[in-house]
């Protein structure tokens, strides 16, 4: 359901200033003489509960300085209050927003965080899974105080909401441009994601900022990584919609910035900002994001209006005026032109017809830095949302960045500019890449396929430590996948195997082995010859609906295509992996070596399209 509020778009005041000073701004805070500014209010829950005057100071400063600072829009990131059943906290928040509600030129958006919904204080209800479509809309205080119909009575920038009212979109002007801002609930349902996609489809040429409560987290090294909810946002909306160029979220304490690349290979600036764990719940700290098109830069600065109002001689040591000041190069014309023109397959290797999964494991195509269990992420360049995420297995000796290392080494063919080095053995544990996705279309069946893997064995690969480790695998056992598809095997066919459903392994004799399960059961493995260490190989497996064939460096291997195998099957939602095999559906046996690219197509590709020929 798409509820729209229709008015003419308001042209917000943008004043280009030169050396001006505001009566309400000290000389310490430089005014912006170029561009326009987005104000961001992270979690205000501690203010609403303990110190509302700091919340009031933030919005009053916006009301007083929106022209001087060229503030064209304000976005709140959720957790408006701390305890949703305490009416006094909502009253404090309403008073804060009243400062900017009185002027149509100071529009804002607001969304619900986990502290803003009744499930947070309801016994027996898990707030983590209390999606927006599971709530009693007549009882939720967030909707009683910040219903989109109420906001639309103040601001023509409110353009529509979903059926629940927890999700809204806004359109505002910045300079000569029109921007769309999505304000999405902290736990959006599938229906909400469909609604958001419809909004994006209806505005194909409008740059989009996505705001929500939980998306990125930050580790102890100040490096960002995706939470599970973040992966959902990335796969469902951000990666495949080129209009989304920036995201903001709060929830996790601290600040972090990530420059990701979407399925079109273009920048997505992703920001986590949340000061609630600091002095006095953040001490009035907010963020100002200045868009300076004349310099092709976006400038970030966190700033406290509350501290600014305190005479410098009266400030305590903890009274921080500003922090986290940085800028990002951003070519507005290039980034905002030809949205989605290349489609999800704008990477050359994804442009081949039939490609349904494609990953390049180099520094240019990672989404995060490898330093936490769930931090190293590679998106699916085919646009089908099958992201691979770093995962721990067992009890590894050493940290993730010792086991999974992005290196410069890459083959002379293909599209990778580096590779992922997997430094695992068969010890007590290690790390690999994991994807719990449908991967194969429909119900997990490919009538035909091509799988390509670009790989080399490490110089210290050993039979004792690394035999039978999988480069690429589908973790569920072949038996379980066959049972899922209700396949009945004929005489001479096998329906029983504890091996992984699909796997490319390195055998005890340094051979590549392809294990696969098809519509007529488990087929015989395909085998290469004994391969060398420290040499880049291109391995191709094809199936034309009847026979499976293996090629290494373009040459057909000897032990292949022995019996009929009808396509490929998988368990929908079952785990896929890079760097580990399995037995009886339990991950184990790590691969040791380097992987540069993996690609899957739903047909037999002509050899001219193979990665080795690029």
From TrEMBL:
Signal peptide start-end: none
Alphabetized Gene3D superfamilies for the sequence: 2.60.120.200, 3.60.21.10
Domain of life: Bacteria
InterPro entries: ConA-like_dom_sf, Metallo-depent_PP-like, STPP_CPPED1
Protein name: Serine/threonine protein phosphatase
Higher taxonomy: Bacteria, Pseudomonadati, Pseudomonadota, Gammaproteobacteria, Vibrionales
